[in-house]
Amino acid sequence: MKNYKNKMYKKKIIKNKYFKILALLFLAFIFGVVILNTITKDKQFSESENRMLAKKPKFTIEKLLEGRFSTKYEKYKIDQFIGRDFFINAKSHIDEMLGKNENNGVYICDDGYLMEDFKRPDEKYLNENIKAINDFSKKHKEINQYMLIAPNAISILNDKLPKFAPIINQKKYLDDLNKSLNDKINFVDGYKALNNHKSEYIYYKTDHHWTTLGAYYGFLESAKSMKLDVKGNNYNIEPVTNDFHGTLYSKSGFASKDSDIVNVYLPKNKEDEVVVNYVEEKKKSPSIYDSKKLQGKDKYEVFLGGNHPLLKINTTLKSEKKLLLIKDSYANSFVQFLTPYFSEIVMVDPRYFYEDIEKLIDKEKITDMLYLYNANTFFSDTSLSAVLNNI
């Protein structure tokens, strides 16, 4: 009996040492991660997610009290977490081996499509944005204002989704948004525009954006509200790559047999010329296309080289009409269709814009305004109200 108690006592001591060692190793790991996160240089781009990562936001007391700084700082810390790409890829491969048809918010769908899930909007931010949009429209009654919120593939191509996928009805939120806006804002029915062409190649299979054809159908519907004459528009449609694997391919980690084709629409009217002014980068270009981006991974960036806080497009049109385009990346492949109708198009991406929107409107003498987002981005946006309220 004594020997048995001695053996149990020794086992208990060994077990306690084992757990102490594990605890020390765990603490060392946590401490090491904290140190590495502190000293490691921030990354600009995630190969795994195929997107630009959040930069460290500029601190001001006003942004801190309003909550905008905290939200952006949290996103920055998540994006810059050490080994982020490794952990995302490891989880994706494990899920694929287990036969899962969803990973990281992306579904494997019929006909080679990958589709991003639509998450229920945060009511607080959504209501703040709607109030800011309505207040802004009343403040600027002299500006013609329009809104196009493009539905995502998961809404239009829902017949391709896996069976029993728990999908939230995106169209209902679009309809409710339309009802929430005041009469000053003309709401463009993007759902109708795209649903009428759902059998066509209007969304990329491996990326979350609409294709240039999808953007064109969105433009035609917008033109009706904006009273733009589209009869004289003719384009040469040129494929610039047939080897595009987009954000959903990277984000999900799921292998896809298909790659996407990226087309550009070149106006046949030789007088439809532009000068693109990349304000923050302090450079200009005679084209909205950046062919160098075709050599990189995110080939959708051929449109304007990706997203920018502030960008100005000057056209050859002799007119006083000037458009302010409040946008996300869906606008990058859309704006090419607007250049025949405005002498200047000012593009503002609220996710990166920290300047005075009122001064910008006064300086550029804006006559028209278009909100152009995809639904996923708009209903998860935390920046728009702050920009419109000039916070």
Secondary-structure map:
Elements: H1 2-39, E1 45-46, E2 51-52, H2 61-66, H3 68-79, H4 84-97, E3 102-103, E4 106-108, E5 114-116, H5 123-139, E6 144-150, H6 153-156, H7 170-180, E7 185-188, H8 190-195, H9 212-226, E8 235-244, H10 247-252, E9 260-267, E10 274-278, E11 283-285, E12 310-315, E13 322-327, E14 344-348, H11 357-364, E15 368-374, H12 375-378, H13 384-388
Parallel strand pairs: 6-7, 6-15, 13-14, 13-15
Antiparallel strand pairs: 1-2, 3-4, 4-5, 8-9, 10-11, 10-12, 12-14
How would you describe this structure to a colleague?
There is one protein chain. The protein has helices at 2-39, 61-66, 68-79, 84-97, 123-139, 153-156, 170-180, 190-195, 212-226, 247-252, 357-364, 375-378, 384-388; strands at residues 45-46, 51-52, 102-103, 106-108, 114-116, 144-150, 185-188, 235-244, 260-267, 274-278, 283-285, 310-315, 322-327, 344-348, 368-374. A hairpin with a 5-residue loop joins strand 4 and strand 5 (114-116). It is 37% helix and 19% strand. The protein is globular, with a radius of gyration of 25 Å. With 391 residues, it is α/β, with parallel strands linked by helices.
